[in-house]
Amino acid sequence: MKIKLFVFILSIVSWTMGCSQSISHSTERAMPEVRILDKGIIGPEPQAHAPSLILVNNLKGLQEVYRNFHTTSFGMATPKLPEINFSTHRGLMVCMGIKPSGGYGLLLLDDYAIIRDNAAEIMLQWIQPEKGAIVPQMLTSPWLLIQIEHGDYKEFIIKDGEGKEILRQPFP
Q: Is 38 found in the same domain as 23?
């Protein structure tokens, strides 16, 4: 009986410590949240062949970027503008650049940025079609519009899934 009581008390204490550790872990990290607001495979013409970043700091900038990246040439209505609270967040348009076919894309790997040396590092997977894959034969220019919390950083660094730096851009 004493052993069962000991095991019961030990399990309660362990569970309580595990809960408090996970709570303190999540509050200790000062990593800004990153969230996808929109994505696409066709950007404005002409778009750069190289990857690029566009910082969105206000509603006017968001409206302009959104209008440029949502073409209505196919008779489709422009989707509703995503909401960003610019007092706590900013928008970031990540553009892959022009690609020769379909099958390319961007995938957000983490829902937070890592702050290192005054830079917000955002991890994205740069998707490419497999060799020999059947893909649409058209120019594409994949992009992601993401939202990131304000934080203690002065530039953005976009890295691929292997940690290789793809883009670096300071901002005012």
A: no
